Amino acid sequence: MSVLIRTNLPLEKLLEEMFSAGSRTDFPDRNANFWIRYINIKQWIASKYYQNAGTGLARDGERFTKHDITHVDDVIETAGYLLGMPINGTNSANFTLLHPYEIYVLLFAILLHDAGNAKGRGGHELEVTMIIKEMGELPGLDSVHRKLIASIARAHGGRTPDGGKDTILHAIQEPIACIGQLTIRSRMLAAVLRFADELAENPNRADDQALKKPYTPSESAIHNLYCKIIRSRVDFQVRQVQLSYLIEKERLNEEFCYEKGNPGTILLVDYIANRVDKVDRERRYCNKFMCQAGFGYDSIKVKLEVQDENDNILEALETDLADEGYPPAGLPIKEKDSRFDGRKLRDKHCGSADERKPAASRQLSWLSLLRSFQKKFFPGE
Description:
Hypothetical protein af1432, four-stranded mixed β-sheet, two-stranded antiparallel sheet
């Protein structure tokens, strides 16, 4: 059964306009209609995968937040705002600096990024290559382009082989991919996808069933409640992300399970604090790749309000998270690359300590050795 899809989100409309107004040489195949191709891919992946994401995620008895095609639309919309697309009548010209094919690649990667949840949560980001292969001729791209798009989608989550979270550098070897005459800033696109996915939490993602008491399973409630109470906004003009939370007073005293197999509990405000810290880490991480193209974000403004049963505000907290002060020391360069060593380079190119001595000095040294030898073995001479 086909799923009804939207194709009028700001970033999608930009692709349609750029394809209609631009040169066909802006795309890998000048004879193909990449706008129609995008619509067909979105319809296929929505019906084949995102329609079944809920079933895949529920295999272990959990009730995750929604990962259907509406979540994909939220990520597309947020990605557009991160790139300076119009919001409330204001916009930046920065988004027009994107190459038309970069927009297509970003949209395709966003369509792919959570599709693997239809087969289960664990390792879902690794399913993207197989999903592209399953599309057959639908993408109409050769293996080089498919591999690039898959790597961008894969980098949105998961872990590196050593257990780290630096998946963008691990998944995408080159910051800029040059394929024929096309230039794609692949790491920047991966960072936009990843940060947009982090910011795409909203009340529509919450599974209301998971919030009915008694919570079943118990660890699902806190994640869905978080979606219920968050409002986020991207302000491209001031390079800021704004997060707002409205909490009912009775929720302050409630303790929540938050991790399967972990008997510990957490208060709602503490969970929010953890999530805000994670958003800020993602901001700083993704900025490394986005700032080079003019899309970085300097701060996160956080607002938390507590209200009573009559909607009276009992508490209002506000704070900003930003990069402040002199940065802490990183790993010393000598530990990253042992070749950055003055003694090693000196000995390699200038010789040993003895070889570096002037000739006259070396001659005196030999004379001294000779005299010492004579005194020791021929003391009477």
